Amino acid sequence: MDAKQTGKWKAALEYGPLVVFFVAFLLLRDRTVHLFGQDYSGFIVATLIFIPALVLSTLGLWRLTGKLSPMQVATLVLVLVFGGLSVWLNDPRFFKMKPTIIYLLFAGILGYALWRRKNWLEAVLSEALPMRPEGWRKLTARMALAFLGLAIANEVVWRTMSETSWVYFKTFGLPLLLFIFLMGNAGLFKEYGIERKD
């Protein structure tokens, strides 16, 4: 399989479970589903569908690339824990808190790296994005603040808006905000980037 095909499969495996959750929620959001002797909202059933979809996609990514990023592993663990709690306790709040926990976790890790003067971000991304050390320090600080902002945004949305609004925010809003953040750092990548020597 060539690099282009691998990239397409990787993208499909990364975003596939989110699409599955979104579609399942849209189809089931106004329904109550009776399972295992209990009534569940469409949101909980969509969460129940999302969990194995994410497990399978993560296994597929590992099979395809031979490795998993720390963020992919953390996401899987937190989905299993918080998604599982939402289904088990029939309470959607746990699953809605999951993005907050993920973003706070990464903001904390990056903040700690800055405090310890470690370039952990460089260790993870330097192959795809070669930069000078000062560029990595600036990017680490910006990403820590960005993750903190996303955690706050998620809390505000799920606590103050409708369930449907939160699902749209999680599916489209959070990825869009991350994309805007990366595009906003194009100047940093250009200023501190290092040309590859092939």
From TrEMBL:
It is a multi-pass membrane protein. Keywords: Cell inner membrane, Cell membrane, Membrane, Transmembrane, Transmembrane helix. Its main location: membrane. The keyword Hydrolase does not apply. GO terms for cellular component: plasma membrane. Pfam families: IspA (PF04279). This is Inner membrane-spanning protein YciB.
